[in-house]
Specification:
The chain is of the alpha/beta class. Helix content is 23%, strand content 26%. The protein folds into two domains: 10-188, Rossmann fold; 191-281, no CATH class. It has helices spanning 43-48, 65-73, 108-117, 134-148, 185-188, 224-227, 264-281, and strands at 32-37, 54-59, 78-84, 87-88, 91-94, 97-100, 118-127, 151-154, 172-173, 191-193, 202-206, 238-247, 253-262.
Amino acid sequence: MQNLILAHTRSAVKNSVVAPLSNSALTVSSQRLVFIDAAVQDYADLAAGAIPGAEVIVLHPHEDGVTQISLALARTPVSSIHLVAHGSPGSLQLGNVQLSLDTLTQYQSQLQQWRSALSEPAELLIYGCRVADTAVGMAFIQALKGLLGVEVAASTTPVGNSALGGNWDLDVRTGDMTAALAFSREAIAPIPLFWKTKPPSLSMKISPMPAALRHLKVGRSMSLRAILKLTSGDSTTLATGALSVYRNPLPSMTVTHSRMMMSRRILRLNLPYLMPQIQKVFS
């Protein structure tokens, strides 16, 4: 899966934030189960944005994800399963294992247990980049349909933020399906910073020069995380169409950017810090 869409952030995952599977984790009335692999960036935000009535379980990244799903499905019958994880044609990363055409035989007994836990009719929705792409991808979802006895939806394209080239439209379906998207539109909508009436290139001078940049020389690097004073959250995403920092001889710096996109987490944590700087550009 492409870094831009659902970035792989191994360093962001901590054992303490991955919800364990416990006997009280699910209610007997659960009809929609949403499994989110903890390797997906901002998985906590996705979990918080699940639609009402959905039970969300975060898969531990260092354990067998197929087994984790099997344990959860043993607790209550469900009508739809939603899998959010990194993918590639014919393959899905679940915890520390891959579910693919090559491993379906290995997990056949567990997949049969999944089938026993599903009500009729039931559906499987896979939110993984390009899982249904190519002949291998199509064979994979057809095999899942046969093993589970459910209709399957998956994507031939990147899944995720539309501003970064992805989408949440599962364009391949093995049959008629009624299950809704597992997340609210608000939860998956990108939050771009843009100004329709302003020039596409913005420039601002920050003075005094941030301490981290005072001794910056050609060939050296800096941490935008440090400059933006990010002190909380497991991961951040900052993408720019063009970003340059010019160190003036004077004790200040000029930042020029033509396009900036921020994740919800950066916007939420740093809006009080960023907006005064942005407003200076237009003053």
